[in-house]
Amino acid sequence: MIKMQYVSLVRGERQILHDVSLTVRPGEHWVILGRNGSGKTTLLELMTGYQFPSSGRIEVLGNVYGQCDVREVRKEIGYISQSLMEKLTLHDPVWEVVSTGAYAFLRFYQEIPADVRGKAYALLEEMGFGHLAEQPLGTLSQGERKKVMLARALMHDPKLLILDEPCAGLDLYERELMLEEIGRLGKRDVAVIYVTHHIEEIVPLFTHVALIKEGRLEGAGLKEDVLNSELIKQTYDIDARLEWESGRPWIKVISGG
Ligand SMILES: Nc1ncnc2c1ncn2[C@@H]1O[C@H](COP(=O)(O)OP(=O)(O)OP(=O)(O)O)[C@@H](O)[C@H]1O
């Protein structure tokens, strides 16, 4: 699905990524963890072709970046980020916002085809809020808006779904609802890449974890292998104990800094 080989990125004086090699195979779902500024979003932008590496090779869904039309590859990728969320029009009805996902643009200036509308409604129904479809996006709670983003990203049946902190800003209840929805992605034929600051968001759907520190991979592999106290300490500079419960890792901080 994704093969990054020795990828480095330099911007100005700053080396943001150093020799990152990461392979995501079909059937795997990855979480990327790391401190603020460690390079997680940059890594996602390289995967989606919004940034180009200074050196190294990136292959996504069989296409080698630099030798393909990235816009075509992006049609197979769903991407959710805070910056995209901020671009959505708050007074548009929810179903219309979801429908725009079919075309990878932000607003409609013409009539929306009936099949697109139907699919948007079906996705909203599946997520349990078909009743909100006609409401303006701006009237929804933050948690509901995140789910709208998810529905929007699924409109074009992506093969790869990239989620940049989709649970940021949600209260415990809303977060669990969103995680439930994310857990259900396992029924779809899509590989999920998920960036978060919260280890307990690693629901059973996820199979693999990459830990990034100052632009370097500290660890990458099966979550059970990577999520150990030693690697967490190396990545976050914090003493912590990990405990697994209900198929999820929970962290107890022993001492920080
Ligand atoms: N165009 C740029 N020029 C210079 N530095 C940049 C540029 N883009 C990103 N950076 C720097 O690269 C580092 C990595 O940024 P990135 O946004 O990928 O981190 P992150 O792990 O996603 O952080 P956070 O968890 O805070 O969102 C940051 O220190 C950032 O300031």
TrEMBL record:
Query: Which SMART domains would you find in this protein's record?
Result: AAA (SM00382)
Q: What is its main location?
A: membrane
GO annotations of cellular component type = plasma membrane
Give the membrane topology: Peripheral membrane protein
Can the keyword Secreted be found in this entry's annotation? no
Boundaries of every ABC transporter domain copy: 2-239
Annotated compartments: Cell membrane
Q: What is this protein called?
A: ABC transporter related protein
